[in-house]
Amino acid sequence: MLISEIIRKKRDGGTLNEDEIATLVAGIADGAAADEQVGAFGMAVFFQGMTAEEAAALTLAMRDSGDVLTWDLPGPVVDKHSTGGVGDNVSLMLAPIVAACGGFVPMISGRGLGHTGGTLDKMESIPGYSATPDNATFERVVREVGCAIIGQTGTIAPADKRFYGIRDVTATVESIPLITASILSKKLSAGLDALVMDVKTGNGAFMPTYDQSEALARSIAQVSTAAGVPCHALLTGMNQPLASAAGNAVEVVNAVEFLTDVRRDVRLEFVTLSLAGEMLSLAGVTEDRETGFSVARAALEDGRAAEVFGRMVAGLGGPTDFVERYADHLPVAPLSRDVMAPVEGNICEIDTRGIGLAVVELGGGRRVSSDTVDPAVGLTGLLDLGEAVSVGTPLCTVYARTEAQLDAAEAQIRAAYRVGEAPELTDPILAIID
Q: Which entry of 10, 59, 63, 81 is annotated as an active-site residue?
């Protein structure tokens, strides 16, 4: 069966059978399919779509291209996945919070896609942290600590790992069946008992409209549940950065300060605890999501979650005193500049995608899959929608390597923020699909 003929069939709107999909996925995994063919297949699916059956077959074939983990633990195995946003560092706090409440979280995360940051890139800004350990180390840390945030190893869904990187640089990220298969192939490989999705919607999301985001949430929930893993989805707003920081090391700082109660962004806290409550209730740790929310808040407030995070970092090769001395361990770009508001008023609109692209241009993301990410650059102090500003109020602070980068980022930030009348603010959680 020629891979080119499989691509042709999908290009022309045909429906692929399980054997054709299995052949294609095997070619992605073993290199029989060239990068050009993988990119062409992604573009064909982008325009022609897939049936639910095709998406399920693609998901399971990519899952089965590598190891599928099994667990024997004294509690439920549960995870969360976000479709990606700007300033979305929820995973860094969420995994240790849920672990501190009795869940086990083997979180297999991805790198940045397009304008969105990647959890894996953030964790790799921690010196010594091994984001792609062998399975034995991964399993040991999950068992002993309760959670481990890693990337795809060579043995976990290798077909998706290659496809993921090619999609990022061929403008085929925003495809519901491809996103569904990519997310679930990794998550189902982790041997989960339950999964909660955080599906973003808004101008900083890959699915900018509510209808698209809802369709993606339902696709993931249906395919996951059909595969035997119960899945709920929260639709959350991404018309502004979720955290007040965007970058890699700067988002790790934001996460540690969140866990240790130095500073917590209000919307970030609500979304994180809501996801924790959903995970705990779906996994059966608590009776309902409201109780889960309260239990998660207690684990955050009494320091248990911060302690778990520190043990996870140390267990995966990072500094043993990271939580206590994070500022000494994380890289900081040599240059910084405040970007000032040009007029008085309220922040009435934010081009969130533009904020994410500013980080990419600084070197905090990738233009092509082979790019090296600079962990030290980024943005801090990002203002929220509705905040009042005067002339000269900082919209954010830019951290960069060169003056040219500072100039370019300043122009992008100024273009991304609009000052005017105070907008009507919405709840950060728009819906729960259960």
A: 81
| Interval 181-202 mean pLDDT | 93
| Catalytically annotated residue among 10, 111, 122, 186 | 186
CATH fold for domain 331-420: Aldehyde Oxidoreductase; domain 3 (3.90.1170)
Is 79 catalytic? The answer is: yes
Residue 232 annotated among the catalytic residues of the structure: no
Task: Give the integer Cα–Cα distance in Å for 310 and 320.
Answer: 7
Q: Of residues 122, 167, 304, 366, which has the active-site annotation? A: 167
Q: What is the pTM of this model?
A: 0.89
CATH architecture of 78-326: 3-Layer(aba) Sandwich (3.40)
Catalytic residue among 59, 82, 201, 352: 82
Is 9 considered catalytic here?
no
Is-catalytic flag, 304?
A: no
Contact call for residues 348 and 237 (beta carbons, < 8 A) = no
pLDDT at 161: 87
Q: What is the pLDDT of residues 104-137, one digit of tens each?
A: 999 988 776 667 668 999 999 999 999 999 989 9
* Sequence spans of domains, the chain: 3-49, 78-326, 331-420
The verdict on whether 115 is a catalytic residue reads no
